[in-house]
UniProtKB/TrEMBL annotation, chain A:
GO MF annotations in UniProt: cytochrome-c oxidase activity; heme binding; metal ion binding
CDD domains cross-referenced by the UniProt entry: Cyt_c_Oxidase_I
Keyword set, alphabetical order: Cell membrane, Copper, Electron transport, Heme, Iron, Membrane, Metal-binding, Respiratory chain, Translocase, Transmembrane, Transmembrane helix, Transport
Protein's name according to its UniProt entry: Cytochrome c oxidase subunit 1
Organism of provenance: Povalibacter uvarum
InterPro entries: Cyt_c_oxase-like_su1_dom, Cyt_c_oxase-like_su1_sf, Cyt_C_Oxase_1, Cyt_c_Oxase_su1_BS, Cyt_c_oxase_su1_dom, Cyt_c_oxidase_su1_bac
The protein's annotated pathway: Energy metabolism; oxidative phosphorylation
UniProtKB/TrEMBL annotation, chain B:
Similarity comment text for this entry: Belongs to the cytochrome c oxidase subunit 3 family.
Organism: Povalibacter uvarum
Pfam families named among the record's database cross-references: COX3
InterPro entries the record matches: Cyt_c/ubiquinol_Oxase_su3, Cyt_c_oxase_su3_dom, Cyt_c_oxidase-like_su3, Cyt_c_oxidase_su3-like_sf, Cyt_c_oxidase_su3_a-hlx
The protein's name in its UniProt record: Probable cytochrome c oxidase subunit 3
UniProt keyword terms in alphabetical order: Cell membrane, Membrane, Translocase, Transmembrane, Transmembrane helix
GO CC terms in record: plasma membrane; respiratory chain complex IV
Length: 533, 294
């Protein structure tokens, strides 16, 4: 480059570029702005949260009592399958991408995401992917009903919906990969001068590692479902023993994606909690470096534990031992994180605003999910627990009060920054207590059901399981209805309310570049990169 | 080195396009394409037409989107930071492609190391053999205990595949020469060696098509030839598809070179395509060793 621009660096004279948003629908459909795209991601994920939640309520309504009463068993199976796909790919993952879109440029001092057009591409693929997936509910033969894990040969028995399922997964994969590449490149290339890697906020760190996981495993899922497609329609025998393949091979490839996927859904929540707990404890995070290394260790280990999902399918003893021990090893870095969050609060001056309440609830309830995960990692114990409600209880504890409470904590933490308005604290606290109580009413009894032997994904059950199922269903409806309150609070805050200051949390001492910008921040975030010391 | 390059210097500001219709056009195009295939597979007559329409829209979207990017690049809107974003984005994209191929190589290794030996009665899965496939013996290549697709022959490594290996390796050399010529400002050598590269790429595709014809018509080796046919055609097929995409990209940047695009210091598109080309090269080498040779 023949030109030097040191002098021009701070002279903010690029007035021809200071335009606001486009007018009307073009602002959203042709968007390149990270905040607009982040908002679209978050709104989309909230809609999907209610769609997937409605499916969950169909499941819990059917299971309210033993016997078949409300829905056809096939439709019940479609509901379990679609609930999982919608919640994983439609609600949790896009919510975290939305948070990354909003917060990563603000936290690293960047003007926008690195690849703004691709950013919009990765968003707009999602509504189309879910149009395709949800339209399977109306085709002959109904929606996919073989479980979200798409195991052959069962999944190959899906009728009309089968190719729609496969292509919807392809589209979601393409979206996730592009979204993840954008996040990695933004973090690696767009940091403000002085912000070295080990000065990045932990939310940024956790997203950097998550994005790496996404780029590594989403293509593997795409490959796996492509093999399903060719097995079904083009005569290949990847997953058929008669031709020398093996249906278990699909499980290996799928879970090579699937286990990192669960960390994709929880690491950003770790990052959120690592931002919130220091703010409301009025102390810096305990053991920042250890947190970074723990997150990286979890990501590394996530690649070598996948077969713990398949102990009962049969594998050599050495394989069982390896996957059991590697899985239990993950408890070490996870324990480091839980310890550090707790130590951050130790002797802190704690206040309990809604984001902190959700972060604390996360801390306790995610840890319960972590412990039941350890139980499931033990091979002989897993032979008992496999495919029971204990597994359902386990992963809902890490996903609902884990991932989703993490998202809600993030929304309550940053919503005033995004909208410029404070939300109704009292309503938000109500939302917190209702959610936390009902989520336990909903999922804790499922541990008992599972240990007593109730199988998952079955619309009917033996009468011995009746009591706890009824409790669980009551919890489900309580939890589901409470979330309407959440939607109302967000809507109300977006429309107006008490003006939020730039720092938002006046009593606390939040650190991070996002608090140096006004609330809401200017349309183009950091036009001039801030210096970080 | 034509237009607009000297009119204003690359900005110090990170270029963020104001708005763009191409992402939404791309989303609609991809949706149309996959809906077309889904209809086709469900035996709806309109399927192939919807698919073709979708593909045409995808091509249109790429032409217009990349056209915008090329125009912006040539009018020097991109500073070094933008250039770095493109580079990093390309590298991570190639990494995702590596992982896509890893899934299919994983299937190949699993079939050879586990499923075929187990079906043949080795290891912990001995009962599958005893109870279901008593006469089956562990061997590779194999179309499985049910002889799926009937007897077939394989393509020997040291025939056409070895020639194809030489072609791709040679194209790796020619693109490197072209790159050095670009950096040295020697446009004539650049144009010649870049042309040689994509011609070698297309030659590879022609020979690969020839090999497929031979396999289908004379060797009875098809996609339906058990797990050997599945892994063989899916791996070489996806590789061939990537070579085709790479050769098209090489052709596009060749035309750009003829128009005088790229400077010795500013030529991300060239390097991105070159990396991609080396990537398909390396995938081929692994394919050659594990699919054809061993
Ligand atoms: Cu797992």
């Amino acid at each position: 480059m023949a030109h030097t621009h040191e002098a021009a660096h701070h002279a903010d004279d690029h007035s021809h570029d200071h335009h606001g948003p486009e007018k009307g629908w073009r602002r959203w459909v042709y968007a390149t702005n990270h905040k607009d795209i982040g908002t679209m991601y978050l709104v989309f994920s909230l809609i999907m949260f209610f769609v997937g939640g409605t499916m969950a309520l169909v499941i819990r309504a059917e299971l309210f009592q033993p016997g078949l009463q409300l829905v056809d068993p096939m439709f019940f199976n479609s509901m379990t399958t679609m609930h999982a796909l919608v919640m994983i790919f439609g609600a949790v993952m896009p919510a975290f991408v939305g948070l990354a879109n909003w917060m990563v440029p603000l936290q690293i001092g960047a003007p926008d995401m690195a690849l703004p057009r691709m950013n919009n591409f990765s968003f707009w693929i999602m509504p189309f992917a879910f149009t395709l997936l949800l339209s399977t509910l109306f085709v002959p033969g109904g929606a996919p009903a073989g479980g979200w894990t798409m195991y052959p040969p069962l999944v190959l028995q899906n009728g009309t919906s089968f190719p729609m399922l496969i292509f919807a997964v392809h589209l979601m994969g393409a979206s996730s990969i592009m979204g993840a590449i954008n996040v990695v490149v933004t973090i690696m290339n767009m940091r403000a001068p002085g912000m070295s890697l080990l000065k990045m906020p932990l939310f940024v760190w956790s997203w950097l590692i998550t994005a790496y996981l996404l780029v590594a495993v989403m293509p593997v899922l795409a490959g796996a479902v492509t093999m399903l497609l060719t097995d079904h329609y083009f005569g290949t025998t990847f997953f058929e023993a008669a031709g020398g393949g093996d249906p278990v091979m699909f499980q290996h490839i799928f879970w090579f994606f699937g286990h990192p996927e669960v960390y994709i859904m929880i690491l950003p929540a770790f990052g959120v909690v690592s931002e919130i707990i220091p703010t409301f404890s009025r102390k810096p995070l305990f053991g920042y470096d250890a947190m970074v290394y723990a997150t990286a260790s979890i990501a590394f280990l996530s690649f070598i534990v996948w077969a713990h999902h398949m102990f009962t399918v049969g594998m050599p003893l050495a394989g069982q031992l390896f996957f059991m021990l590697a899985t239990m090893l993950i408890a070490v870095p996870t324990g480091v994180k839980v310890f550090n969050w707790t130590a951050t609060m130790f002797k802190g001056s704690i206040s309990f605003e809604p984001p902190m309440l959700f972060a604390l609830s996360f801390l306790f309830l995610f840890t319960i999910g972590g412990f039941s995960g350890l139980m499931l990692a033990i091979v002989p114990a897993d032979f008992q627990y496999h495919d029971t409600y204990f597994v359902v209880a386990h992963f809902h504890y890490v996903l609902v009060p884990g991932a989703i409470f993490g998202i809600m904590a993030a929304v309550y933490y940053w919503l005033p920054k995004w909208t410029g308005h404070m939300y109704n604290n009292k309503l938000a606290t109500w939302h917190f207590w209702l959610s936390t109580i009902f989520v336990n009413v909903l999922f804790f009894p499922q541990h008992f059901l599972g240990l007593a032997g109730m199988p998952r994904r079955i619309p009917d059950y033996s009468t011995q399981f009746a009591d706890w199922n009824m409790v669980s269903s009551i919890g489900a409806f309580g939890f589901g209805l409470s979330q309407l309150l959440f939607a109302y609070i967000v809507w109300q805050t977006a429309r107006g309310g008490v003006k939020a200051s730039a720092k938002v949390w006046d009593t606390a001492t939040p650190h991070g570049l996002e608090w140096t910008l006004s609330s809401p921040p200017p349309y183009h975030s950091f036009e001039v990169a801030p210096e970080v010391k | 080195m034509a237009h607009a390059q000297t009119s204003h210097a690359p900005s110090d500001k990170y270029y963020v396009p104001h708005s763009s219709p191409w992402p939404i056009v791309g989303s609609v195009s991809l949706f149309t394409t996959v809906v077309g295939v889904a209809l086709w597979l469900n035996h709806v007559n309109a399927g192939p037409w919807v698919f073709a329409l979708g593909l045409a829209m995808v091509v249109f979207m790429f032409v217009r989107w990349f056209g915008d990017v090329i125009r912006e690049s040539e009018s020097r809107l991109y500073n070094e930071a933008v250039d770095r974003s493109f580079r990093m984005g390309m590298m991570w994209f190639i990494f995702s492609e590596v992982m896509f191929f890893a899934a299919f190589f994983g299937a190949l290794f699993y079939a050879r190391q586990f499923s075929i030996p187990w079906l043949g009665g080795e290891g912990v899965k001995v009962f599958t053999n005893l109870l279901l496939w008593k006469d089956y013996e562990n061997a590779w290549p194999s179309n499985g205990p049910a002889d799926v697709g009937g007897d077939f022959e394989v393509i020997p490594a040291f025939g056409l595949p070895a020639i194809n290996t030489a072609i791709l390796l040679l194209s790796g050399v020619t693109i490197t020469i072209a790159h050095h010529a670009l950096k040295a400002g020697n446009r004539k050598v650049l144009n010649i060696f870049l042309a040689a590269t994509f011609l070698l790429g297309f030659l590879f595709i022609v020979l690969q098509a020839e090999e497929y014809m031979h396999a289908y018509h004379e060797l009875n080796l098809t996609l339906g030839s058990g797990v050997y046919g599945s892994t063989f055609f899916m791996l070489t097929g996806f590789h061939g598809f990537h070579v085709t995409v790479g050769a098209i990209m090489l052709t596009v940047i060749w035309f750009r070179c003829l128009k005088g695009h790229f400077t010795p210091t500013h030529h991300f598109a060239f390097e991105g395509v070159a990396w991609y080309w080396h990537f398909v090269d390396v995938v081929w080498l692994i394919l050659f060793v594990f699919v054809y040779w061993l």
